[in-house]
Amino acid sequence: MAETDDLTLYAQWREGKDREAFNELVSRHAPMVYSACRRQLKTPQEAEEAAIEVFQMLAHGPRGPQTHLATWLHAAAVTRAQQRTRAQRQRPPNDAKEPAGGEIAWETLADVIDAALLAVPWQGRIPIVGQYVEDKTQAEIAEEVGLDRQRVITDGVTGFEALRRELNTRGLAVDPSRLKELLSTNMVEPVPSSLTPKLAEQAVADPLTGRRLANGFVVEETIKKGSASGWVIPLAALAVAAGLAIWIARGRAPETPVDIPETDRAEIVRPEPDRPVPDPRTPQPDARPGETRPQPEPVRPTTPDPSVTETATFAGTVRDDTGSPVAGAKIFAGPL
Q1: 3-class SS at 129?
Q2: Distance separating alpha carbons of residues 80 and 118, to the nearest angstrom
Q3: pLDDT tens for the 336 residues of the chain, in order
Q4: Which long-range contacts (CB under 8 A, 24 or more apart) does 317-322 make?
Q5: Quick one: which of 11, 49, 37, 21 has its CA closest to 195?
Q6: Measured between alpha carbons, how far is 107 from 180 in angstroms, rounded to an integer?
Q7: Which residues are registered as beta bridge partners of 319?
Q8: Contacts of 59 (CB under 8 A, 6+ apart)
Q9: Contact 24/1 with Cβ under 8 angstroms?
Q10: Phi and psi of 25, rounded to 5°?
Q11: CB within 10 Å: which end of the chain, N or C, has fewer?
Q12: Chain centroid to CA 12: how far?
């Protein structure tokens, strides 16, 4: 039974009226519920009565906790204590003075800590209750609520800062390390030895009162299951949008390089220039004065004899008038 998580025990009670499961829940959370009630009510007797009412709401309410039972019980305890305070005469103000060094004393913080914690959003409140009330590790809290550990750490930091802001609005500027110290050592106080069985017995015995007290009590238990790294994709999309905006502002369209295939490239053939025929009367540069060297006979083109057929071999590429290569082309020399 000790290894079973809270929500499983609660389901066993709701579905099968398992008294052992409900007694285990009361045993686990009675100190926290009683402490939250005691901080807001005048006497231990009033705190006991309020704690009994909280567990009556848990036992017989139409809608119980869905995501985190301890945080739900804390919200129920604070709400019920506030309702009893409003119905009776107001509790006199606490006259505790702050130490000379400026540090906030627990007696000063105790009057407002539960109401301030109730103002913290649900997902940020769970790590605070789990760590400073239930004394659980971040890994245990993550497993309990079905989140990854990094997300619980992030939610805890966000919730803790929200709690400090809420205290600041109430006139209490508390240093973070001092607040952690006060929460760790004062949120849960010992309960009378006879209280736990009394809470369980009376909570189960009066279903009508439980349903009446739970009527209208609704806790918004919204939990976002996304990972803490989920901001990466929106940030990447934002970067892409910014790049497109810069490109549009510059007004330049992207140029797509076109790769021209080798077969479509035109081959440029430059004809060799005609060699000039030297004049026999032109003196050579290395000739002596008055000396004229005989010039070789120029090679004059001869007209081929059409009656003579010669076979010649050419190496190269034959192209048509568009410049495209012609496969299997044949060349004929002479008239056809």
Answers
A1: helix
A2: 12
A3: 778 999 999 999 999 999 999 999 999 999 999 999 999 998 999 999 999 999 999 999 998 999 999 999 999 999 999 999 887 655 555 544 454 456 789 999 999 999 999 999 999 999 999 999 999 999 999 999 999 999 999 999 999 999 999 999 999 999 999 999 999 999 999 888 889 999 999 999 999 999 999 998 988 898 887 654 444 445 456 666 766 767 676 665 455 554 545 444 444 445 555 555 555 555 555 555 555 555 556 556 556 555 555 555 556 677 777 777 777 766 655 555
A4: 317/267, 319/267
A5: 49
A6: 15
A7: 325
A8: 13, 22, 203, 204, 207, 210
A9: yes
A10: -65, -45
A11: C
A12: 35
Q: Are 152 and 159 in contact (CB under 8 A)?
A: no
Left if phi > 0, otherwise alpha if psi is -120 to 50, otherwise beta: which for 334? left
Task: Name the token pair of 97.
Answer: 């003075």
Query: Quick one: tokens of 134?
Result: 């239930």
Tokens representing residue 263 in the block: 């077969």
- The one-letter code for the residue type at 232 is V
- Give 289: exposed, middle or buried? Use CB within 10 Å, 0-12, 13-18, 19+: exposed
49: left (phi over 0), alpha (psi -120 to 50) or beta: alpha
Contacts of range 4-9, beta carbons closer than 8 Å, 24 or more positions apart: 5/144, 6/65, 6/68, 6/69, 6/70, 6/144, 7/65, 7/67, 7/69, 7/144
Would you call 190 exposed, middle or buried from its count of C-beta atoms within 10 A (0-12, 13-18, 19+)? exposed
Distances (CA, A) of 205 to 10, 60, 71, 189, 312: 17, 10, 24, 26, 120
Handedness of CA 188, 68, 65, 5 (dihedral sign): negative
pLDDT of residue 330: 67
